[in-house]
Amino acid sequence: MDRRTFIAGAAGLTLAAGRKGSAAEGAKAPYRIGVIGHTGRGNYGHGLDTVWREVPGCQVVAVADADEKGLAAAVKRLNAPKGYADYRELLEKEKPDLVSICPRWLDQHRDMAVAAAERGVRGIYLEKPLCRTLAEADEMAAACEKHKVKLAVAHQTRYSPRLPIVRELLRSGALGQVLELRGRGKEDKRGGGEDLWVLGSHVMDLIHTLGGDAKWCFGTVLEGGRPIRKDDVKEGAEGIGPLAGDEVHALFKLASGATATFDSVRGAGGEPTRFGVQIFGSKGILELGTGYLPPVSFLPDPAWSPGRTGKKWLPVTSAGVDKPEPLKDAGLHGGNVAAVKDLIAAIEGGRQPESSLAEALAATEMIVAVFESQRAGAPVPFPLKNRQNPLTTIA
Known about the structure:
Layout: H1 3-6, H2 22-25, E1 31-36, E2 58-64, H3 68-78, E3 82-84, H4 87-94, E4 98-101, H5 109-118, E5 123-126, H6 134-146, E6 150-153, H7 163-172, E7 178-184, H8 193-198, H9 200-211, E8 214-223, E9 226-227, E10 234-235, E11 242-243, E12 247-254, E13 259-265, E14 276-281, E15 284-288, E16 296-299, H10 306-309, E17 314-317, E18 320-321, H11 331-349, H12 357-376, E19 380-381
Parallel strand pairs: 1-2, 1-4, 2-3, 4-5, 5-6, 7-13
Antiparallel strand pairs: 7-14, 8-9, 8-12, 8-19, 10-11, 12-13, 14-15, 15-16, 16-17, 17-18
């Protein structure tokens, strides 16, 4: 079975194979899980702590949280035998096989991931965004490669059972030649730079996996209608680091020959949201939202104009185009369950997870490239030479 079609049928996964010591013990011992959170500083992400209760063969052995009340609540919520104020102590004393790095705040993602890799974990499930800079991402990648650790990022849409149908529509030529991909954030009060970092992580990941590698980026970041400057740069929310811009516009050239765009304007969000990706081909359009069972629609119209041609949008489900959805939507939780099962299968099968560290690094580089292009005042090629936050040196 191809790993991209594995996700929808992951429920029957056998977890004991390949675990350290399991063959010698002759028993199906569970994977030992460590959970790392930080109440008040990203908390426990979008359910990255509780997901393990839904995965047979996994047992949460400890949780770490520097906040005393938060730690007590987490121990109770997860029925964890032990709680630690310091995640490093958890890693050293409990020696978990797998860890969830849960905080939405990304200022400690690099330190937590490197510490886990260096202390012998086999797999990491990490809340998005990946980290603050490409330099941090490079260090995470080096640590995971050195210690043979698999790392999966919580881009839950990557595990949607509808995504294989989208890929098949692209592969089969039903969309024709792919000409462009358009992505937008939620464009709420975070619109602009924060939207690009926090929600653009999902969008860039989808553009990359469906459209291919980016060759260059030409980005514009504005504040109050003018290009950002040094005095616009402030410390971003959720540990992002230096941040600016209430409006961003980016054009990418993809190796496939198609172009991709990402746009976000603060306060311009639609209802329902436009958050997601549109794929325009010579024979029609695909629209893809986010989530475990995201809204997906196909317009078989080469004119891209249903009002003029009379063509209709067709729903896309896990069963195919214009077919009833046989599955119930489990929300982000469903994506988390599929993701950690895939992570374990990747460990046992000697492959990378569907939403791997390398994939997340590619999405992060697309995000950083928008700010780097604004700083340089010109298109920037991939891979980026500047691995630091471009806003630290903007004029």
